[in-house]
């Protein structure tokens, strides 16, 4: 490779940053082989710290006008003047620049994930990690919130509820004492998650209440099953609990359905997606097909208004059995797609309280060195064309949880009544 001058090197770097900030980070990094080697070259001299750059097969967009001199001016001033120079981490600065770019879109679900954060996101879908057992999301005003605490988790034991706003995070061991204004999902996960036995303090506010409370949570092993089934009312009703749409969901779902089919006494099913934060879109299509003979399950509309339609994709095994679906504030994304399709096809009534209301679809891109990018690429609509963003699914029969009767599940009891059991 021909040796480059510093001026040529900087021009190449500007080209790289230009391509990234033009809005095509996921596509560009996914289709070009780019390798960075970072050295503390010229520390304190005002020179770029990137010592070597190898670029393969790139093109320069000609229709964008951005002056990158300000970017390098800030970079160089930090390098020259920051007091604790031993704390300068160029890799983190580089990742931080990309995270800032995605955050500037104002969409909390479009995020760049450094390698550690990307690995944590994959662990969530795998269903096993160490932490407090909270599914995170955002409220209508984009504040960090609890989509659902997992049953049996440290968070659930500490009184955390679906819909709670998380206002402050404190972890003395990590040196964290931060409010959550403007926080991204990966940042929140990194701060709240930690090794088994360690403590984190969360300041929260229950939905609809003014007063805050502090939860001291000791982290533990979190193992999240996807599907469970139990039989109620002398085996006449199968309570089919769907907690997530992850890597193991399909296999566990098939096992649960086989148990239902093997029980000749079963006359009805309660499909419970309370606290289910979603996951893979294909999972919602596959599971909705279990109950529907035919028809549209979900519509996907991109930024140009192009609509893709996803319909029943297999022959289901529970096509005629009476069905009720339980939803709550923690039901989001793929679980809303499933429940919305069953409602619109009049296959089931919804019982509970209004669901989360996510309404958008993210594509995931694995980037170099283990990093990842989640990009909101489309909105999804129910078969009847409803966009649920920020409004959620309204139940046919509204039943709120009575916090004074912890031993009684009023929503499940109402579902049994609707089924006539």
Molecular structure report:
The chain is an alpha+beta fold and 421 residues long. Helix content is 28%, strand content 28%. It has a six-stranded mixed sheet with strand order 12-13-14-17-18-21, sandwiched between helices. Strands 3, 15, 16, 19 and 20 form a five-stranded antiparallel sheet that branches. Strands 8-7-9-10 form a four-stranded antiparallel sheet, with no helix packed on it. The chain is globular, with a radius of gyration of 24 Å. Helix 8 (281-288) runs parallel beside helix 9 (334-344). It folds into three domains: 6-104, no CATH class; 128-223, Pdz3 Domain (Roll); 227-418, 2-enoyl-CoA Hydratase, Chain A, domain 1.
Which descriptors would you attach to this protein?
28% helix, 2-enoyl-CoA Hydratase, Chain A, domain 1, Pdz3 Domain, 10 helices, six-stranded mixed sheet, 421 residues
């Amino acid at each position: 490779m021909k040796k480059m001058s510093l001026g040529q090197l900087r021009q190449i770097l500007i080209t790289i940053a230009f391509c990234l900030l033009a809005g095509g980070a996921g596509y560009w990094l996914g289709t070009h082989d780019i390798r960075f080697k970072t050295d503390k070259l010229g520390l304190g001299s005002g020179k770029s710290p990137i010592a070597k750059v190898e670029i393969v097969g790139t093109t320069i967009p000609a229709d964008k006008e951005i002056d990158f001199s300000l970017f390098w001016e800030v970079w160089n001033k930090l390098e020259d003047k920051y007091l604790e120079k031993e704390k300068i981490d160029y890799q983190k600065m580089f990742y931080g620049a990309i995270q800032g770019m995605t955050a500037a879109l104002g969409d909390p679900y479009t995020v760049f994930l450094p390698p550690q954060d990307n690995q944590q996101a994959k662990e969530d879908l795998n269903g096993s990690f160490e932490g407090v057992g909270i599914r995170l999301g955002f409220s209508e005003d984009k504040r960090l919130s609890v989509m659902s605490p997992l049953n049996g988790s440290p968070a659930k034991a500490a009184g955390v509820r679906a819909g709670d706003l998380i206002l402050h995070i404190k972890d003395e061991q990590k040196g964290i004492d931060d409010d959550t204004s403007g926080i991204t999902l990966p940042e929140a996960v990194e701060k709240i998650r930690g090794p088994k036995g360690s403590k984190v303090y969360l300041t929260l506010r229950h939905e609809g209440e003014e007063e805050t409370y502090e939860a001291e949570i000791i982290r533990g092993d979190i193992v999240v099953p996807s599907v469970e089934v139990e039989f109620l009312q002398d085996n006449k009703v199968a309570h089919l609990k769907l907690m997530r749409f992850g890597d193991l969901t399909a296999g566990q779902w098939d096992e649960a359905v086989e148990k239902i089919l093997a029980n000749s006494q079963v006359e009805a099913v309660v499909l419970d997606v309370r606290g289910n934060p979603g996951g893979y879109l294909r999972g919602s299509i596959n599971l909705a097909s279990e109950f529907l003979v035919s028809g549209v399950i979900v519509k996907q509309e991109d930024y140009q208004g192009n609509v893709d339609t996803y319909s029943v994709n297999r022959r289901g095994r529970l096509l005629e059995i009476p069905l009720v679906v339980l939803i709550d504030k923690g039901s989001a994304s793929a679980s809303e797609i499933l429940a919305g399709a069953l409602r619109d096809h009049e296959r089931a009534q919804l019982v509970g309280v209004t669901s989360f209301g996510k309404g958008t679809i993210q594509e995931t891109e694995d980037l170099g060195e283990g990093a990842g990018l989640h990009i909101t690429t489309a909105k999804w609509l129910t078969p009847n064309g409803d966009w649920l963003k920020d409004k959620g699914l309204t139940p046919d029969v509204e039943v709120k949880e009575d916090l004074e009767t912890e031993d009684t599940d009023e929503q499940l009891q109402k579902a049994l009544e609707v089924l006539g059991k």
